[in-house]
Amino acid sequence: MSKRCSWAQGPEYLPYHDEEWGRPVVADDALFERLCLEGFQSGLSWLTILRKRPAFRAAFADFSIDAVAGFGARDVRRLLADAGIVRNRQKIEATIANARAAAELRSDGGLAALVWGFRPQGRRRAPRTGADLPATTPESTALSRELKGRGFRFVGPTTVYAAMQACGVVNDHVLGCVVRGEVERQRRSALATVPRA
Known about the structure:
This protein is mainly α.
C-alpha cells in the first residue's frame, strides 16, 4: 500500500488528497472558491464542506467572481434559506464582499498573482508527519494582512494558510507521500504561468 498523508482516509478524503489538495491553482475564480470554502470551514470539519461543495458551487454561481460580486440582498436571503450550504450570514456576506474585492484586484494582476506572490522563497523541508505542519506561517500572516487591507473578510492567517496548502502555493504533502513529487513538479511548472502582481 502506498504512503499518503495521514488525513487521506476514506472515500471522500482520498480522491480529494490524490487529485486536488496541493495541486497548483492559478485561475482567479478557482482560487476564489478555495479561499471562500476555507472561510466557510472555519469552526467546522473540512469533510462537511467537501460534502456540501456541489451545493456551494450551485449557490454561488460556480464561484464566478463577477457573478458573486453582483449578488445583493435578495441573494443573501436565498443563500440563508439554502440547506445545502453552511447558512451563516457573516460568512455569506463575506463571500460576496470577497468577490467584490477580488474583482478590484484585476488592475493589480488579479487574485492569483497576489496570493502566489506570498509563496515561501527558497526550498522548504518536506514535513515528515502531519504534526510538522504549522497552522500559520509568516507568509500566511502577511497575506492575511494584505487581503484584509484590500477588503477581504474571513481571511485570518490560519484560513489563508489552509488555502495556500489547498492551492499548491506550498507543498505540504508529507515526505514519502505518493503524490508529493508529482505535486512539486506541477507547482514548479505553475510558477511560470502565474501573473506577477
